[in-house]
Amino acid sequence: MESAIFGQAIREYLRGRRIAPWIALAFVCFLLASAWVKFDPTSHPDGRYAAVSSMLAFRILALASAIFTTAIISQEVEQKTIVYLLTRPVPRWKLLLIRYVASVTVVAALGIVAAVLTSLGAFKGLGGNDLLTGDIMAMVAGALAYGALFLFVSLLFNRALIICALFAFGWEASIPNMPGEMYRLSIFSYLQAIAQHPSNGDNKGISLLTGSAGDNLITRGSAITTLVILIVVMLSLSAWWFTKFEYVPREDAE
Questions:
Q1: What whole-number distance in Å separates Cα of residue 164 and Cα of residue 62?
Q2: N or C, where is the chain less crowded by C-beta within 10 Å?
Q3: Which long-range contacts (CB under 8 A, 24 or more apart) does 230-237 make?
């Protein structure tokens, strides 16, 4: 039963009309990385890759997580299929976490595709990118962390997608650039610590766009530890909340 629930969720997420826009955005990463040298002829491939990856690929990851994760339950409520979902002979918490894992799988895959295409554009091929492994680690960690946070938000609020999208593009784009210790309140700052991208030097404009204008003193080890704690806490709260409270079809979703 668990594998059937997971497979059904994956098939929902991988429908052509749902996945095509994200593949198109991943190709935008490739095109931007390929054209970057025209804007900055002195740039090195690793710098081009790091800039486009931070500026666009990780934003795709956050937005995809917001859209896919909030659909886990809210879509069922709005489409009035939540009753049928909950009649399955599977504990609620397990049902929720299985669908969360399916969402994370798709979101992480989209992030990795964006990173690989960015690498192809920046390095004009598959070889020579020592940053790609760190980015793949960060994409997986980001899919898990964003997904856990957005899942809990989606259980608390109607129209949670608006909140999560604002977090993905507003909070995550601005907080890492702020002075002091504010950057520690952003998931993206921890993903940067895992990815270990090189500095953008004195180019303040690029630094602002890539979210690296502020100080980031987080080590890779502490970033992983912090994200693990965040994921466990958010998933535990989500499982408890979904088990305790009732969810019924929304009559105003027409």
A1: 9
A2: C
A3: 230/145, 230/148, 230/149, 230/187, 231/144, 231/145, 231/148, 234/148, 234/149, 234/151, 234/152, 235/97, 235/100, 235/148, 235/151, 237/152
| Integer CA distances (angstroms), 15 to 12, 39, 106, 172, in order | 6, 37, 11, 28
Q: What is the DSSP string of 40-109?
A: -TT--HHHHHHHHIIIIIHHHHHHHHHHHHHHHHHHHHHTT-HHHHHTSSS-HHHHHHHHHHHHHHHHHH
Calculate what percentage of the chain has a pLDDT beyond 90: 51
Query: How far from 119 is each of 47, 55, 64, 158, 174, CA to CA, in Å?
Result: 11, 14, 20, 38, 25
Cα separation of 41 and 18, whole Å? Answer: 37
Confidence at 127, pLDDT banded by 50, 70, 90: confident
pLDDT band at residue 253 under the 50/70/90 scheme: very low
Instruction: Give which of 22, 50, 26, 5 is closest to 212, Cα–Cα.
Output: 50
* Tens digits of residue pLDDT in 96-124: 999 999 999 999 999 999 999 999 999 88
